[in-house]
Structure formats: C-alpha cells, structure tokens
Amino acid sequence: MSISRDLLEKDLYKVLGVPKDATDAEIKKAYRKLAREFHPDANKGDAKAEERFKEISEANDVLSDTKRRKEYDEGRALFGNGGMRPGPGAGGTGGFNFDLGDLFGGAQGPGGTTTGQGGGFGGGLGDVFGGLFNRGGGTRVQPRRGQDIESEVTLSFTEAVDGATVPLRMSSQAPCKACSGTGDKNGTPRVCPTCVGTGQVSRGGGGGFSLTDPCVDCKGRGLIAENPCEVCHGSGRAKSSRTMQVRIPAGVTDGQRIRLRGKGAPGERGGPAGDLYVVVHVGRHPVFGRKDANLTVTVPVSFSEAALGAEIRVPTLGGPPVTLKLPAGTPNGRTLRARGKGAVRKDGTRGDLLVTVEVAVPERTEGKALDALESYREATADIDPRAELFKAAKGA
C-alpha cells in the first residue's frame, strides 16, 4: 500500500467536505471549489490559506485515485477496529510487534506527499534498517522526495483543441543555495542522535504493533544544524522561483488536471523531485463550441436552401471550409456531421464537427422576393403546418 500512517489519521473526506460515499464527480467538484478559494495566488501572504490549500491538495490526491482511495478506506477501517491483534501463535503478552512500514510500504515525504519505493523516507523495515547502517557500519541519512506543486493555466479555445506549450512561473521549496541544502552555514550538520539520521522515530501504537512518526528534534530531516544557515534557518530549504515551458496536450478540457511526473520541487539529499499538477482553464470561442471530442457550430441557411436542398460551405477551426450537402426539406435545427473536423482524442484520432442548421428569416422582404413569397403562400394555402399539433393536443 502507499498510504502513510499520518494520512490514515486524517479524515480526508472532512477536509473536502464530502461524504464517504461521494462519487468521483462530487470529489472533483468539491476540490475545484476549495482549491480556487484557498489557492496561494488568491491569498498572498496568508499562511493559513496556504496550509489549507496543501491539505485540500493532499486529500484530493488520495480520494481522486481509485486505488489509493481504497487503500485509505481499508487503512482507516483497520485503525477504527483497534488495529491488528496477535495471532493464535502469539500467546499472552509476548505477541509479535508490527511496524506500519511493513503494512503500508511507504512513508510520508515533506508537505504530506506520500512516496513509494525509491523515494521519501523509505518503504518498510528493510528500508529503515538499510537507512540506519551502511556496510561500513556508519550512519546514512535518508533522501527525501520533493514536494508536489499545483499551478493553473488558461488556454484559448484553439490552444485547448490543438495543444500548446506555455510558460509557467512556479514557486516552491528547493535546496538552499547559501548552505547547499545542508541547513548549516558551515556546511557541516550533524546526524540527529534521536532518530540516528532516519528522520523517524517509533512509538508503541497499542494492539501489539508500533507506529512511526517524523522525528520532532530534526523535523524529519535526519540532520541537525549546529550553526543554522541565516537564509533557511537550518531547514536546508529555501523558496525558489523558476519558469518552465510546459506542453499541454491536444484535446484538454476545461477544469482538467494534468500530472507531470518529476516536474515539482527538487528532492533533498538525492531524493526524487515531486510532481507538477496543472489545472487547465479554457476560454470560449465566438463561433465554435465543444461537446467531448466533437466541435459544434450553428450555420444559418435560407428558406429556399432548406426547402429545395443545396450545398453549403461551413467554417472549420483552424482549417479550410468544408462543403456539406443539405437535403431538400431540411427542418430548422437539424444537425449535419463533418467527420474528422473536431478535437483530438487521447488515441490521436479526431472527433467530428457537428453542424446545426438554423433557417434565417429576413427582416424585410420586397420586390420579386415578396411577389414570389405571396405566390407561394397562395399555392400552399390549404396546407396547415399546425394541424398535427392540434390533433395531438386533443388526444392528450
């Protein structure tokens, strides 16, 4: 499993304000609303809003992932039942001690980010002991995974359909340049004596097993600065801003959340970088609309074109017009289809352009056109277009 004990102690459903049986759509809607309200860009200098935003992102990362949500629910149920009990072979008070690292196979990195194998603080007893001692008998400080970063980008309608490369300016925690990420202004921090460089300490959790917490003395770093750096105050991390060119794939939709692995904050002591999550907002187009992978457009036609049939030219998004055949007797509101002229799907194919016909009625009619319409009215005087309407109304 990839859920840490710290996450299991939190009610992530309560964080997002949704019930435990909430659907994926309800979770997504709640997250988007809260993320916009507490986003750091909208709450400059508000530390509480920033912390709340981190909690919201953390909850969404778990609950929006089907596998992780299942693991979280199962883990919460385990804690709710008092944990694991000693088995039949563990009599009296001499039962086995279980470390949650064996159960959940992951540890929590900075900022509440959960890491699996190869990152974070480790993944079970093997990683814990391997981090305590190397082959030479010395102490090895564990690497830490970088924080995940969330950003937003607004694309034009055309950019969302075709894809675009956009610059994103991001602020995150990175190794402090003044002390090279050591936290010590002399570059010589010492290994924390409490956790022996692992960044974690164990405590009894009841029910015959132990729990693992971040070390409070070194704040999970595994190192203590004797001479704290004046820039990062001993944390080894400092605020860093950078601009990155990010490729947004073709066919994205409004509100879609894109995950870019390894594009988040840099890791510490050789740990992997976090991930970058980009929430996409899409602007409107004055002519075209969108329905899944299909584009939509409304095209006006004359009465004679609709009645007698015609070939009409229709605009496309970013390409040459197409010609569609309008059958005789086409009613107002009928939809025609131009295949392959829509948005790009995930498999690389394109959707269609859905063309809705709208019969245009002139504001004024005069001359030969007026005479022709008068003749038409006389020729069709015995046809009542509302006859079926009244017939159906009487039978209801």
Question: How are the SSEs placed, and which strands pair?
Answer:
Blueprint: H1 5-8, H2 12-16, H3 24-38, H4 47-63, H5 66-80, E1 98-99, H6 100-104, E2 107-108, E3 114-115, H7 125-132, E4 149-155, H8 157-162, E5 164-175, E6 190-191, E7 200-204, E8 209-214, E9 223-224, E10 237-248, E11 257-260, E12 276-282, E13 289-291, E14 294-301, H9 303-308, E15 310-316, E16 319-326, E17 335-338, E18 353-359, H10 368-379, H11 387-395
Parallel strand pairs: 1-8, 4-12, 14-18
Antiparallel strand pairs: 2-3, 5-10, 6-9, 7-8, 11-12, 13-14, 15-16, 17-18
Helix pairs in contact: 3-4
Binding site for Zn(2+) 2: 192, 195, 215, 218
Subunit structure: Homodimer.
Binding site for Zn(2+) 1: 176, 179, 229, 232
Q: What would you call the shape?
A: elongated
Superfamily (CATH H level) name of the domain at 289-380: Urease metallochaperone UreE, N-terminal domain
Number of helices: 11
Kindly report how far apart the N and C termini lie.
61 Å
Low-confidence stretches: 80-139
Query: Helix coverage percent of residues?
Result: 25-40%
- What is the gyration radius calculated from CA atoms? 32 Å
By CATH, the architecture of the domain at 289-380 is named Sandwich
Quick one: CATH class of the domain at 289-380?
Answer: Mainly Beta
Instruction: Estimate the strand proportion.
Output: 25-35%
List how many beta strands DSSP finds: 18
Average pLDDT level:
78
**Spatial order of the strands in the main sheet?**
13-14-18-17
CATH topology of the domain at 289-380, anyone?
HSP40/DNAj peptide-binding domain
Q: Helix-strand pattern, N to C?
A: HHHHHEHEEHEHEEEEEEEEEEHEEEEHH
Largest sheet: 4 strands, mixed
Structural class: alpha+beta
